[in-house]
Design goal:
The protein is an alpha+beta fold. The chain folds into two domains: 111 residues, Rossmann fold (3-Layer(aba) Sandwich); 117 residues, Tumour Suppressor Smad4 (Sandwich), CATH 2.60.200.40. The chain has five helices and 18 strands.
Length: 253
Amino acid sequence: MYVYLYDNFLRQKKYDTLLKSIETKLTDYSIAGKIIRLQNFTNAERVINDEIKKGATTVVIVGNDKTFGHVLSRAASCDVSFGFLPIGSENDIAKVLGIPTTEEAADVLARRRKVRLDVGWFNNRYFVSQLHVEPSNITVEYDERFKVSSSNKKMELIVCNLQPFSVGKKNKNVTIHPQDGKLEAFLRPATKKTLFRKATYEEPSIFPFEEMIVSSHSPFTVHADGKMSKETKIKIKLAKSRIQMIVGRSRKF
């Protein structure tokens, strides 16, 4: 049984035509199912586990990158297959998964090409795509062997699992493999801002890891799959569980 989790922004009329086209295809493929509309306060894990008890075998996230993160930041451990129907802007994750942002996404879902993906974990919640620590005076220790301190320079940290990160002067995307049993970290010192330009960055150090501790004497800002928080210490590691995701043939890994 299929369950579809619709982001609330899809109530806007501009998405009606695309949604109807997708829903028609889903019916033709005999994979139409129950529709649940998400709110900001929706506990995705509770909703999905309730639906599993009723017989759900596939949960499809319908929306954008933010929707994807909102659901899986809590529900990545649920014992179910996940699908994704990307709609609207901000759909970088869909490109990595090989899912088009058109009605053809329904074709990908119907083919049910499934892979298992690594999941990140930090401070009691999951992240699947990317975690970002804004430039701060942080100390980074990873795999209990290596330690990096920013001294008098602020450092930016990006931890990638699924969503790629552009590095270097040419903004080249570094390929991330979300099945290799590692998370990838990009650590780069920030140069000082001037009155006329934004801060620039040195070339990043790139390294895979399994567990990392980031700490600071003052709070730093963390963004993980669309959610923001202030922290003074976080532990980032691979989660024990992996998610089963339906992907397209043109996926980037």
